[in-house]
Amino acid sequence: MPAFTHHIFICINQRDPASGRGSCDLTGEQRLRDAFKSEVKRRGLQLTVRANAAGCLDQCELGPTVVIYPQAIWYGGVRIEDVPRIVEETVIHGRVLADLLIPDERLNCKK
Ligand code: FES
Prior knowledge:
By secondary structure, the protein is of the alpha+beta class. It is about 20% helix and about 15% strand. It is globular. FE2/S2 (inorganic) cluster binds near residues 13, 59, 63 and 65.
């Protein structure tokens, strides 16, 4: 079996809206995670690409948050409709999507 080339971690954390921080999966339905899993499968990438549900990735204010390892590419504000192009552009072609990228200087900023 080939090694995984990409692990896509999709935050599915659900938090009380009154908390003041964001919450990546407001409905708790894991629809974004499911969309990644479906897209990976649809493209026949499941032997080398893994889409995993993740707990809070601590970028809540910038969510929904996704991080792709080992490339360490962080995306924020990810919508279901972004999933096909993330897989196509980033996973398959290695291109970073500037409109979704959380730049290093914004990572771990709590504002
Ligand atoms: S709730 Fe998703 S990064 Fe914290």
